[in-house]
Specification:
This protein is of the alpha+beta class. The protein contains 5 helices and 12 strands.
């Protein structure tokens, strides 16, 4: 026992840590872990360095979901039917939307295209940069990912998108071209190193043809 203690203290001294291989120290520590005590219990050794082991992170109880707070996906309660007051409000809202659609001259829509959002109106040009669409020139597209539809004094927002039966946005491919060239020049002084690259990205131009609003489906969508 005394010999083992002497060996450990000799190995764990600053001079011995520099001279003794890390494998020998770790093998000695594993063979007699009870002799380490609290001082060296949380450390492991590498050549000329001592690193502390990462402690296990514990989530506090305030951030945990308790068993009685968990929802069973098979027994999710269904939303209650709208009352007479809510039905009246929905009818008023639907009539207001239909009236605004008939009186407004140029509605706008927020659509999702190629990972970005665009605010468009009838007759606008939208340039999509990055990915080349498979559609050819003159093809008509139906933009189904509509996030919002707005008029002069009224706006409809989706959760996150409006229903396909509620709004229809049509666009036409008018041009498929390349962006202006971008020059990348790299120079390293005193090394006779020069590199120049010219890069152009595909671009597709769409013209928004029409933004149609399906009036009979307003109340169902809301």
């Amino acid at each position: 026992m005394q010999l083992a203690n002497f060996t450990l203290h000799r190995l764990l001294s600053p001079i011995s840590i520099r001279c003794t291989p890390a494998a020998v120290i770790n093998r000695t520590l594993r063979s007699s872990p009870a002799l380490l005590g609290k001082k060296y219990a949380k450390y492991y050794f590498t050549p000329k360095k001592i690193f502390r082991k990462e402690e296990i992170y514990r989530v506090p109880k305030t951030q945990l979901i308790l068993p009685h707070e968990r929802l069973d996906p098979l027994n999710i309660p269904e939303p209650s039917a709208p009352t007479a007051t809510e039905s009246g409000l929905l009818e008023q809202l639907a009539s207001a939307v239909n009236h605004e659609q008939s009186t407004s001259g140029r509605p706008f829509a927020i659509v999702h295209l190629v990972g970005k959002q665009y605010k468009v109106s009838e007759g606008d040009l939208v340039q999509l940069v990055g990915k080349s669409l498979l559609a050819e020139l003159g093809d008509e597209l139906v933009l189904e990912k509509v996030l919002a539809l707005g008029f002069t004094d009224f706006t409809l927002y989706g959760r996150p998108m409006l229903s396909r039966d509620c709004v229809t946005v049509r666009a036409t491919v008018v041009e498929k071209t390349l962006e202006p060239p971008k020059i990348r020049f790299e120079f390293r002084k005193r090394q006779n190193f020069r590199r120049m690259n010219i890069h152009q990205t595909n671009a597709t131009v769409l013209r928004i043809g029409s933004i149609e609003f399906n009036k009979p489906a307003v109340q169902q969508a809301l």
